[in-house]
Amino acid sequence: MEYFLELFFGGLTRGSIYALIALGYTMVYGIIELINFAHGEIYMIASFTALIVSSLLALQGMTGPAVLLLTAAAAIIFAAAHGFTVEKVAYKPLRQAPRLSPLISAIGMSIFLQNYVMLAQTSDFLPFPNLLPDLPFVAEYLPFLGATEFFIIVTTALVMVGLTLLIKFTRMGKAMRATAQDRNMAMLVGVDINRTISNTFIIGSALAAVGGVLIASHIGRINFYIGFIAGIKAFTAAVLGGIGSIPGAVLGALVLGWTESFATGYVSSDYEDVFAFVLLVLILIVRPSGLLGRPAVQKV
Amino acid sequence: MGPIRRLGHSLVISLWFMFLTFPIMVPKVDTIEKTVQWRWDNLLYVGAGSFFLSLLWRFLLERKERGPFRAAEREQKPDAPTWADRLRGNPRALRSVVVILALAVCIFPFLPFVTTYQVNILTNAILYIMLGLGLNIVVGLAGLLHLGYVAFYAVGAYTYALLYYHFGVGFWTALPLGALLATLFGVLLGFPILRLRGDYLAIVTLGFGEITRLVLENWGEFTFGPSGIAGIPRPGLFGMEMNLHEVTIYIYFLMVGLCLATIFVVRRLQDSRIGRAWVALREDEIACEAMGVDTRMAKLTAFALGSTWAGLAGVVFAAKTTFVNPASFTFLESAMILSIVVLGGMGSIAGVALGALILILTPEYLRAFSEYRMLAFGVIMVLMMVFRPQGIVTGVRRVYTYTRKGQDGKET
Amino acid sequence: MKRLQMFAVICACVFLAGPVFAADTIKLGVAGAHSGDLASYGLPTLNAAKLVVNDYNAKGGVLGKKVEILAEDDVCKPEVAANVASKLVSEKANVVLGHICSGATKAALNVYKDAKVLTISPSATNVDLTKSGDYPNFFRTISPDDAQARLQVDFAINKLRVKRVAIIHDKGDYGKGLAEFAKGFFEQKGFVPVLFEGITPGAVDYTAIVQKVKFSGADAVLYGGYHPEAAKIVSGMKKKKMKTFFISDDGVRDDTFIKVAGKYAEGVYATGPIDTTKFPMAIAAIEQHKKAYGSEPGAFYLNAYAATICLLEAMNKAGSTDFAAVSKALRTNWFETPLGKISFDERGDAKGIGFAMYQVKNGKYVEVGK
User: Which residue of A167, B1, C69, C338 has the smallest Cβ count within 10 Å?
Assistant: First the structure.
């Protein structure tokens, strides 16, 4: 039982991390139907920014939760700025283009951002300081869970709730949902499409930045290539849950995290990714639009 | 926009980029030695660079908007003559272009300044033309987004490698076997995903590609895992002994031959009943079904036939590299082949060929930039898409006209 | 007409590119991953080559000619490596330093073999490269996998009294090869590993495999792979307060590992080349890197430094760049390098390079056995 619980919480942590990145994917997809392959790179840039800022602060002799807050703020600001800029440069000119063109532009952007960070910083792995607070009560009440894992799960949950409220109740959220449903109609009723799309990218990137700080603290090392694998996983999670659906992305990420964790624990880590993808195929065969995705309405 | 405002705008942009790139470009912290290196000069380069580039960017975008490629205008006068259209309309010019190209292809490896390397990378590019044409069947014609194409390429490569390793099977026997096996795999993948649409299909194909690579990596007893299989023989020619340069040229011509065969078959397929079914499927699945096209069959054949070419290319790949391991069959490779199809122009054979030449040869010729090679490559990909979103060569739509006598007349 | 022009430009590129080099320099090809996910293993080699070549050129070059570096990126992919090899052959590289990954090396060697180009790899450890005898033109300044595995197994059984061992690897050519040798050696001694598994490099989290090790009841973990993953696994194990020994390989015996894993690195065992840190040449080489690039050198830097010296010195000693003469010079002479005095045996493995076992004590690797 203990083994099971440990695997369960390991999977939950993993899934929470995937969820933060998957949300950005799913939001962008929901609004402009683009698989944003550069999203993983935004997460990578956020981790690098966090590393640099936290090191600078540490050199100034700062410690404690202030470092975490300032670092997270910087990572979020710069990630959001990158998300905004990437959209303006690589996707906005392609809004009327054939469907696959922005996808290729995204792949190019992803290659560019990876190499940009590699050249401007380093190709080596860098140690990332653990910024998350060590919560002593966790070890006492939840022996299966480390403090870091606890912090990740709680933060992710809070972020989800915040995002849901934002989308449900604010003007901006309503504009986003309207644009996702029907872009032309939204434009007719006075929604500023360009701004809404920009907002989506900014929020998605900010979430990836939160993910970046958490994961980098959890793993303790980063390099310019971490975005690629995380991006693929998050994309898988988003589709698993039904792409375009926000609760779906979270559910998909958790299912993916658990699958990997249990596959490693009870079968073999040789095939952990194989299990993840096989599960994906099976779920999509049974539910062709993902776990929580609405079946695509076929307009005739 | 007036010139002053334009400059002001660019100034804002350059300030924005200086802010944006600041944390990555300027400080470089050594977390181990606890030192920081401030590289302020980089900020200057970014500022100046983005200022001029934004001016250029604006200028080019405006030109593009005004230019002949604007979508709206295009619809108004659909026969705005492009270079490709003009060629198509002029069979004599077309013939002479083809003859010149054929001659160039034939004499290329024998030119005095052409080295083994030149022949080698051109062979590589031709290999990718073949892959691109295969994927074009699935993506360009049938409109099914396929992100795991490299799996079938791997199937072909491993077919030859393993058959040679265990049974000493030669290249020419392995070639059809590789194609056959890849086709079978295509059908195998095709069945479960018949119900899926759009991006759900894309992710399943991506998953399939990853599963294939992971199995190759982990099933050590069968595939030799990451150490790969070495010493695969290059194709022979009646048992002749050839040195490296000669073999390279031989493979080059072999590849040209296979590529011509591919082009021939793909052209025939396009015009066939099944080809038209694919196009109908791409345009509107429901209407297509309503017209009595068996969409399941059309999807299955698209996958199967697309995979066949990947299998063929895989066998040649194994023979050419003489070594296979799973590192060659990553997702990035699938993305590259997809980029060839989209960048060249979906559904157009000439487009795919141009796309392959550009995307495969560019990184090779960018080697002069050494570390900056892939950076430049990423930029080129984005720029090509922004300024030519529909691809280099746009596929022509065939127009079928109905004549009163009840015969289908075909016009282009 | 624009497209016509573009097409013409492309054609022109295809036909005219391929720079023509003058023949009055010695050309040293440096091939390896210089971009992509494995760049961190390839770029230090390029740095080492540049530094050594600068030194030699300052002293007047080799055989009275300047040495020129032809750096080529193979992304550790076999097919690109084969292209790179044919490029270097076409550009008449005299000798090649590389490649980095064993798979890419194998693909490239077929090309070099036909063209009689000699190569020294600083990092390709696959056993077949030398033991198979297929590649007479291949040398390396790193020991093959089996030597390392044997030392690890002996050390674990004799010194640490390990009975139950869990073997983990990163599924890569290097890590998995090593792990399989170790498994074989353990089984020869009558110990069947309780766990033999691969992990996915670059995954976001390794808690599941740590749990598995914990519940397998292993006394020791033997890890085949590189330091980034090792650091994560070790941290995970220490956070779970596990007392299991952690034994790893040359990919982990890197100071970056200690810095990444921090306090969790304490007590970790790793095999690595015989201690070089006291050799004056090694100290000088590392200093040189810090001065030139402002950072600590990365993986395989000293191996690459040594390999470059061997290549250039062998040409000096042979008095020519001829393949047979240079390879004979490599086999018959001893070279002063940052790795100590080394020479090469018939198959191309380095003599004088051995392995030692190290343990992290107070944030430093200390030699604990040979």
Answer: B1
